[in-house]
Amino acid sequence: MIAMKTMRMYGDGGSRGNPGPSASGVVIYDLVDGEEGEKIIEFGKYIGVATNNQAEYTSIILGLKKAKELGCESLDVRLDSELAVKQLNGEYRVKNAALAKLFVEIHNIRHTFKHIRFTHVRREFNKEADAMVNLALDEQA
Q1: In this structure, are residues 26 and 129 in contact, taking their beta carbons and an 8 Å threshold?
Q2: In DSSP terms, which residues pair with 41 in a beta bridge?
Q3: Packing angle between helix 127-140 and helix 52-69, nearest 10 degrees?
Q4: Strand order in the sheet with 20-32
Q5: Residue 56 near residue 50 (C-beta atoms within 8 A)
Q6: What CA–CA distance (Å, rounded) separates 35 from 76?
Q7: Parallel, antiparallel, or unpaired for β 6-15 and 20-32?
Q8: What pLDDT is recorded for position 67?
Q9: Fewer CB atoms inside 10 A, N or C side of the chain?
Q10: 55-80: per-residue pLDDT in tens?
Q11: Which of 60, 42, 41 is nearest to 106 (CA)?
């Protein structure tokens, strides 16, 4: 039996002002027997003027696309945005039109994975993705 390629992704987004200059950050680890293995990739991307929530959602889109590109079949997504996690898990409705468009894009990508899970983590457990956000914002400034 061939093992599924499993990864863990941390995503974060932020804006300086809300809305304001915004960026998204992603960190992806190989997952071996449920434990984080080697860091595969980390990156940040400046996305222009957006809200915090739009930046969070954009980080998820960027991370899902990158994980898929890397051959991931099972993805454990960790986010410090409780709103995004609850919306993606169907606990909250997406009422904002701009977010709804991003939500649909995530919905379409998520179905290309054999397994995907979205989990809320406290900010202190998402420092690397947050650092990628700030690096992208600082480089743009």
Answers
A1: yes
A2: 28
A3: 110
A4: 35-50, 20-32, 6-15, 74-79, 115-120
A5: no
A6: 11
A7: antiparallel
A8: 98
A9: N
A10: 999 999 999 999 999 999 999 999 99
A11: 60
Please state, in angstroms and rounded to a whole number, the distance separating the CA atoms of residues 88 and 59: 14
Distance CA 78, CA 22 (A): 20
Q: Which amino acid is at 114?
A: K
The enclosing H or E element of 51 equals none
Q: What is the pLDDT along the chain (141 residues), one digit of tens a residue?
A: 556 799 999 999 999 999 999 999 999 999 998 899 999 999 999 999 999 999 999 999 999 999 999 999 999 999 999 999 999 999 999 999 999 999 999 999 999 999 999 999 999 999 999 999 999 999 998
- For residues 128 and 141, what is the distance between their CA atoms, to the nearest angstrom? 20
123: number of Cβ within 10 Å = 11
Residue 137: in which H helix or E strand, if any?
helix 127-140
